[in-house]
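Hello forum,

I keep getting stuck at the same step: I have a sequence, I want structure tokens, and every attempt I make locally crashes halfway through. Rather than fight my setup again tonight, could one of you with a working pipeline run this one for me? It's a single chain of 295 residues.
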Amino acid sequence: MSALVLVADADPFNLHLLSELCGSLGYEVMTAADGGAVLDAMARQRPSLVVMDVRLPVMDGLSVLGILKADRGLSGVPVVLVTQEDDAALRERGMALGARHCLYKPYRPLEVQQRLREIVDASVGSEPARSPRRPNGVPVRELADPLTQLGTGSQLRISLDYEFTRAVRYRHALSCVVIACSNAAELVSRLGEQASHGVIAAVANTTKGAIRTVDHLFRSGEFEFTILLPETHPEGVRIVAARLRAMLRGANTRAGLPPPTHDVHPRIVLGCSSMPASDLPDGEALYSAARRDCT
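Reply #2:
Ran it on my machine without issues. Output:
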């Protein structure tokens, strides 16, 4: 039986994102838009986990948490509070009241999913962690790419929609960088699968070291990586791309392959796109524009 997660946020945009992230983990989802609705929903059905914004209307999240922890029948339900990153005082109060964990806005989908799965698995037992399934019986994909431990292509799609919508809403810039290998098939054919995996891992590790903690990095294809850079204008993404090109020249050496002068070496290409500099309708278009720019 699937775990039931109650998601509470007054913002329909954030409510939709959290519901989508929980649904993609195979959980059933209930939603609430204010503190009173949280208590009403829990009176009808006891969830496995509550993910609740601290700043709820009608009754704020801390007040709801205090009521839940005082109720003998509901005190055992783990509660994850959502705060802004700079709300340290609210987080301290929430943890003192009995919150299991705190998540920060803006969300990082991979981090959110990993944390929620850990908490749900700990509360309902270890079996769901070995073979998580959606309500329709379809197995849930791994949260991180097994080779690189980066976000997956499906998480990239969620993040594209989330970050693009945030950029439009708050009038922020958003940039995207795609890194690919133009001769991936040749590498696999001539060097073998194990060596090509070494190149992929080296590119992933190098890229991790070249970006900020607020940026999102995904393995978006067999030999393709995508970076989302919130609040980064075209000038900034060009600086990032130049730094990446310089750092990735040595990626094949770190993978244990011959230097680039050898007749078989990875040919790394990068492409960039930004909004609002470009007239792009959505996040998928931003990603597609960066792929087309790969040179």
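Strands lie at 4-8, 28-32, 49-53, 79-84, 101-105, 174-181, 216-221, 224-230, 268-275. If your local run keeps crashing, start a new thread with the error log.
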